[in-house]
Design goal:
By secondary structure, this protein is an alpha/beta fold. The protein has six helices and ten strands.
Length: about 190
Amino acid sequence: MALLRETGRFAGARWCPSPNFGPRPDDAGISLLVVHNISLPPGQFGGSHIEDFFCNRLQAGQHPYFATIAPMQVSAHALIRRDGSVVQFVSCLDRAWHAGRSSFRGEVECNDFSIGIELEGADDIPYTPEQYAVLARLARQVMAAWPAVTPERIAGHCDIAPDRKTDPGPAFSWSRFHDLLLAPETV
């Protein structure tokens, strides 16, 4: 966990640097983990579209939906693919652009103090066992590196921007995730 705190990089994650990040405010400690979902095109999995989107390479002409989002500049710290593999876009030490206008328990601008992890998925499509296991592992690493992040300070995008966002959606089992998060870690 000391390595994560020093480098901001998750061990074993494939690095795909996004230009969409900035420094955290000087007084902002990391105290929140936000769970998101994304699929591009919506409801379809695999391919490079998510990486292209977070790296400003998404081609608007490849799909009608892409024309609506291609100009956006967004990112997340990491993406957990359907098979459990992890792609990291922004160092956890930096401010990824994942939450937008947001608030958690009265604290505004959640990007300043949070880490955003995307699950390759959709609100109404069940997530894979591999995704739950890897999300729990990464969340435990984040909590060990930044003790202000506790199970009570892990939220969905829907919780911090309820007027705009619904992810990770009803297909995400918070109880399943919390069971894995709090289970003794096995080797």
